[in-house]
Amino acid sequence: MRKVGIILLIVGLLGFVVASSQRGSYNSVEGALKSTFSSDERAKKDAWETGRWVFVGVAVMGLVLTVLPGKSS
Fold it and tell me: Per the domain annotation, does 41 fall within a domain?
């Protein structure tokens, strides 16, 4: 379980970093204008925001499985 936890932790952190960088592009003036006037861009912005939270959840699950691995048989 500890190996699975470490893998989930790494995947969660990397996914969070990638999703945050993609989501950050909408914080510029051009990105804000695009997301204001285009529903497609707004959907992409919301998808990256949702992805950030999903990857945080994966990282937390990995942390729990790493710290509390369970009993060995």
Answer: yes
Per the structure, the count of domains in the chain is 1
Within a domain: residue 73?
no
What's the rounded Cα separation, in Å, for the pair 22 and 29?
15
C-alpha separations of 71 from 5, 59, 68 in Å: 14, 21, 9
Could you read off the pLDDT of 25-62 as tens digits, one per residue?
A: 878 788 778 777 888 888 888 899 999 999 999 999 99
Please identify which residue in the block is written with the tokens 């009993």.
71
What residue numbers bound the domain in which 61 lies? Answer: 2-67
